[in-house]
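2024-03-11 09:14:02 DEBUG pipeline.ingest accepted 1 chain
2024-03-11 09:14:02 DEBUG pipeline.ingest length=138
2024-03-11 09:14:03 DEBUG pipeline.predict start
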Amino acid sequence: MRVLGLDLGTKTLGVAVSDELGWTAQGIETISIDEEQGEYGLKRLREIIDEYKVDTIVVGFPKNMNGTVGPRAEASRRFAKVLEREFSLPVILWDERLSTMAAERMLIAADVSRKKRRKVIDKMAAVVILQSYLDSKQ
């Protein structure tokens, strides 16, 4: 079975999935959402979960650098509860401090233009979050 990795933003949701052995994370897509309206792209997530036979979901949990929980982490916590209710799968909140910065560095190192980086940064952050989780399991 596979693990789904999600990076929640206010307007987009980065999506990554593990390989069947749970060793590597691959970026799938970025879903447009409207967090304020409670629109999280659940229909598309259902399609992805079914297609890849996902059995666990990992959601980035953006703690502050001092370890405290701020507004974005609370948003991730609320989102995780929505996912648990909607999909009846285990949802793990995973510390994602600096994941977006790591994703940005990888894209810069790969010489991806600023315009293209904006389009894929959330998907890459989801990859970083998921890969960190998978590495912790090894």
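2024-03-11 09:14:41 DEBUG pipeline.report The longest strand covers residues 25-32.
2024-03-11 09:14:41 DEBUG pipeline.predict end
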